[in-house]
């Protein structure tokens, strides 16, 4: 059985932490990080807001990401081995792919591939504080969060909801352990119901 999990949501919401924790315990599990598909910096447009448009779908090579997902779908065992994932033969031939990123549910060709979609949220002030504590290869210029990052998050979240994309909302203010156990239990129950 092939099972694709989306761990989406806002910047600095806890997506990568949750993904990494799930990766440690789920059998035959691979991960694809959307951040690995950013286009080169010289291909990122400057918007009317004066900022490089990193937080828009066009900043990502989504066709390459889709091709990577399709490679997993065509042969999850081969994909796992090629990415250094040990394949457990006792895992009832279940293969899990986690897609992790901030705009997972905005690219139509991917939306219907998910078995389960999660969406992490945190309040504005918490998100801004977490973002200020992170160091990025390309540092945030002053005003980026309020002038671009937060408005783009709100825009894409509204579009996702308007398009009827069903997600399980997760409170990113919960402890890492609580979120991990909530999602792990949900995935395990979903897998049991499919077998």
From TrEMBL:
A GO biological-process term: nicotinamide riboside metabolic process
Entry's Gene Ontology cellular component terms: cytosol; nucleoplasm; plasma membrane
Pathway: Cofactor biosynthesis; NAD(+) biosynthesis
MF terms (GO), sorted A to Z: ATP binding; metal ion binding; nicotinate riboside kinase activity; ribosylnicotinamide kinase activity
Transmembrane portions of the chain: none
Pfam families: AAA_18
InterPro entries: P-loop_NTPase
Annotated catalysed reactions: beta-D-ribosylnicotinate + ATP = nicotinate beta-D-ribonucleotide + ADP + H(+); beta-nicotinamide D-riboside + ATP = beta-nicotinamide D-ribonucleotide + ADP + H(+)
Keywords associated with the record: ATP-binding, Kinase, Magnesium, Metal-binding, Nucleotide-binding, Pyridine nucleotide biosynthesis, Transferase
The UniProt record lists the keyword ATP-binding: yes
Key word Metal-binding present: yes
Stated family: Belongs to the uridine kinase family. NRK subfamily.
Protein name: Nicotinamide riboside kinase 2
Species: Bos mutus grunniens
